[in-house]
Amino acid sequence: MRSNAPSLMPVFRSRHQADLLTLLSLHPDQDYTVTDLAARLGIPLTTAHREAQRLEESGLLTGRAVGRSRLLRANTSHRAFEPLARLLLVTFGPHVVVAEEFAALPGVEQVVIFGSWAARYAGVPGVAPADIDVLVVGNPPRAEVYAAAERAEARLGMPVNPTIRASSRWASGDDPLVATIQGGPHLDVTAEMPPVDKPAHAT
């Protein structure tokens, strides 16, 4: 599966490579198999294997065999790790950070990134994004949405602008903003949101 140089930061060989590096650099203490990486990134197993092998050979990743599996993680001792991790965070990291920070919000059905960052991520040429536009679909507490946006903003070092729409308005597409988002580049990060343990109800 061929992947062209990404518009967000064309110094990387491909968006697949950048996404793989981003996932590993944002979770440097976590091990992944190639199968895990392919599933998380939504790419073919052969592509994930090829990119991971190149990165391990370069020293940016470390690997160890456990049974028949090979576990990979970012090589935090590599002298390029810290500057590379920061670059990846502000370019390819927004969808990972937004998914993590908005995951615990009650009443959220979908979280969608739109605007200039989504356009660059989709490969549309243009200037580097200056902020991240996020649509929260559902009926979450407004204060908690803005608190999540502030946490994401602190991690990314760039403004995160949340907007809330009811699920009925997202489904109908009659809302002008919703119609614009659905008609242009956007990225639904709902599937990336880590599971959150819900408190048990008292009996």
Automatic annotation (TrEMBL):
Query: Which InterPro entries does this chain map to?
Result: ArsR-like_HTH, HTH_MarR-typ, WH-like_DNA-bd_sf, WH_DNA-bd_sf
Highest taxon listed in the record's lineage = Bacteria
Please list the residue ranges annotated as the HTH marR-type domain.
Answer: 14-65
- Which positions make up the signal peptide? none
Which GO terms of the molecular function aspect are on file?
DNA-binding transcription factor activity
**Stretches that traverse the bilayer:** none
* Protein name in the entry: Winged helix-turn-helix transcriptional regulator
List the taxonomic lineage. Answer: Bacteria, Bacillati, Actinomycetota, Actinomycetes, Micrococcales
